[in-house]
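Follow-up to my post from last week.
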Amino acid sequence: AQSVTQPDIHITVSEGASLELRCNYSYGATPYLFWYVQSPGQGLQLLLKYFSGDTLVQGIKGFEAEFKRSQSSFNLRKPSVHWSDAAEYFCAVVPPGGAQKLVFGQGTRLTINP
Amino acid sequence: DAMVIQNPRYQVTQFGKPVTLSCSQTLNHNVMYWYQQKSSQAPKLLFHYYDKDFNNEADTPDNFQSRRPNTSFCFLDIRSPGLGDAAMYLCATSRGGTGGETQYFGPGTRLLVL
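User reply:
Got it. Predicted complex:
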């Protein structure tokens, strides 16, 4: 079935440590790829997106993501997390031919230890 | 600043009492979306408007309706709220086009059904 998967429901890292959040998709062709962040009780904010071209994408707040076609993955990374990065992170895709429809992964909740 | 505004931020209603949630945008975007997000879950698309064209998701209950009187405003009507409709409701907008356009989210309205 066509889907977006975030394998990790909850991740805890220490402040200052590096972070990688995983995202895999299963579509016949490469979809448009997005990462959103949601702070508690808030709406979603776009961190970055990939449509084509350079497979390493830079986003806001020091985040980056790497598209790997061979692994059908679009993992989000940050070299050094801050306590303010604690939030829910959603990987999302617009499927091939999906026009306006955004399909979300299940989300990964990030906790930061001081 | 151009933005997506949702009112109210918190709404309390009674079981079976109709309720309307409001969304407005200053981005002049063609597409407006309504998502339902239950606790610890990903947002689920209910429907969207592309200009005046209404697009309902196949699994959206008939209890949920929407109106878009003009480009700037879109409303979500819940005709007879049940306890299971308690959730965060997110409005989003995008420019539209062939696909892959970024969706911009409002802060959400949290609905409580008593």
